Every structure is written in structure tokens, then in C-alpha cells.
Amino acid sequence: GQSCASFKPSHGVVQLGHVSSSVSRLGAVNLNIFYNKFAVKHEFEVFDFYSNENIHVLLGLDILSKIGIGITGLVSQHFTQVGPKIPDPIDPDHVKPNDDPYGSEIERAPFVKSLNKLLATNSKIDLKNTRCNLPDSTIKLTTKPGCVAWRAQYPLPEAYREAVAAQIKTWLDEGVICRSRSHTEYNSPLLCVKKKNSEGEYTLEKPRVVCDVRKLNSILVVDDKQQLPLISSIHERIGDKTIHSLLDIHACFTSYGILPSDSHKVSPHMGFAMLER
Questions:
Q1: For the segment 41-53, what is each residue's pLDDT rounded down to a tens digit?
Q2: Which of 129, 148, 178, 230 has CB atoms 3.0–4.6 Å from 185's, for a disulfide?
Q3: Nearest Cα residue to 276 out of 139, 178, 171
Q4: Residue 255: closest CA among 135, 190, 175
Q5: Considering only CA atoms, which of 139, 275, 152, 161 is closest in space to residue 212?
Q6: Residue 268, exposed/middle/buried by CB under 10 A (0-12, 13-18, 19+)?
Q7: Coil, helix or strand for 125?
């Protein structure tokens, strides 16, 4: 769309990539280029340039660096190699997720011994009558005055009813939920969602049962400004560390208590019973 008033006719030939390939020069033109926040004035050669892709301009290596474009990873030979390639610091065939312990068994023994003592103590916790005891860990569900959150239970596929019933039994046995009073103004439907298997794939082979509290969230008075950390922030904190440990906490989210006066606000309803946290 730029004017070609700066076009200067000339004669001669332009040598292309192959030694036997050249075209007649028509002239040169000065154009202003705006790309990637760069503004560059450049003199372009003008010649007949045929291409099936209908390319109007071909940028040479002399101008790419001026507008912030770099070329990397080009192969130097074909068929025999695909290089150059920067060596990967991690051999993906050697490392097995969740099964790549540090050092030898002798080196790990003192740590395992210390951890086993803590795990033994942890296993004695009465899950049914115990909640997280950290300060301010009890969940408060302050709702806007005059607002309630009732959403009917979604139809559950017959194939998932057994999984839902098993999860409800576990929640009842562990004291996560209890039978609710009838005629409550709140109801949050249950959902079955995909769960990651041992291969790292999300499937519905063993569905995860969750409570859809989006309607309840919409009427909450939120005064908590604490946000969960970003994955990128976590990577920055642990990126220079050598040893990483992982603890898989059983039912972490349901380990937090809810203020008794608010517990009825998290009420799923299954055909046979009304439940609450």
C-alpha cells in the first residue's frame, strides 16, 4: 500500500540462490518497514518474482536482524542428520515420573526413617473428627443479604451412579458430610469429571466426584484477597534446587472445616438424601 514514487529504474541481473538462476533487474525502491516495534528504511531490489504462494516481498538476511528476526535451528545436512541440536539437560527416557528417587537406598535411609515416624503419627489422626487446625483455616461463607443459591441436580449418567454412591459413602464415613435438614434454601449439584490416570491422561475410567458451587460463589461476599500462587512463580522458587519432594495429601480440600452456621450452604442433594458439609 505504499507509494512507489521512490522507484529508480535500472538494468542488469539479480543472482538468486542457485548459480544458474538469475532474473533481470527492473530497478530499486526505498520503502519504510514497520515490524515488531522496529521502523526501518530499506532499499529493495525490484524484479519479476514468481511464486505459487503469491509472495510480494522477499526479505534477505541483511535486513532480518534489523527488524528483530533471527533464524535458528536450521539443519546443516539432510537425511543423515537433523542437527544442530542443543542437548537436552534431562533424558526423558531415563527419568520416570514419581519413580526417580534421589541417590542410593543407603543415602535415602535416614530420610525415609524420619519420614516414616511422621507418617505413622499422621495415620493415627481421626479424620472424622479432625479438621485443619491452622489459624484462619476454617472456611466462612458470608453471602449477600437476601440471596440464596439453589441449583437442581444435573442428570447423572447411569454409568457413574456407582462411583457417586461410593464417594458419598466415603464422605459420610470420614465425616466430611452429614445428612442435612429438609427444605434448605441451598443446593449445589454433583458432577463427575475426568481424573488423571497413571499415564498422565485425563479419563472417566475412575471419575472424580465434585460439587458445582458456582452459583454459591456468585452470591458470596468476598473479602479474601489471598491468591493461589502461579505455576510460573513456583517454578522460579524451585528452579535452582537439586532435590524436590512431593507429598500427596489425602482429601486435602475436605480437610478444611466450614463454620457451622454456614455448613448448610454447601448442600448437594442426591435422590435419597439431602447432605451438607
A1: 888 888 887 666 6
A2: 148
A3: 178
A4: 175
A5: 152
A6: buried
A7: coil
Of 198, 194, 217, 215, residue with least CA distance to 206: 194
Question: For the range 156-163, what are the long-range contacts, defined as Cβ-Cβ under 8 Å and sequence gap of 24 or more?
Answer: 156/190, 156/192, 157/192, 160/192, 160/204, 160/207, 163/192, 163/206, 163/207, 163/209
Please state, rounded to an integer, the average pLDDT across all residues of the chain: 81
For residue 36, pLDDT over 80 is answered with no
Residue 127 burial (C-beta neighbours within 10 Å; 0-12, 13-18, 19+) = middle
pLDDT digits (tens, 9 = 90+) for 182-215: 778 899 999 898 888 777 788 888 888 988 999 9
- Greater confidence (243 vs 39) lies with 39
Residue 123, C-alpha cell as written in the block: 495415620
CA angle 223, 227, 228 (to 5 degrees): 145
DSSP for 115-162, please give it: HHHHHHHHHTS-GGG----STT-SB---B-TT---B-PPPPPPGGGHH
Grid coordinates given for 199: 499415564
Would you say how long the chain is, in residues? 277
Task: Name all domains of the chain by residue range, CATH numbers in brackets.
Answer: 8-67 (no CATH), 134-225+248-276 (3.10.10.10)
Say which residue the cell 544458474 belongs to. 20
Q: Which amino acid is at 14?
A: V
DSSP state of 86: P
Residue among 15, 20, 8 at smallest CA distance from 46 = 8
Please give the Cα distance from 74 to 86 (Å, whole number).
12
Strand partners, 195: 203
Handedness of CA 159, 161, 162, 164 (dihedral sign): positive
Residue type, 272: F
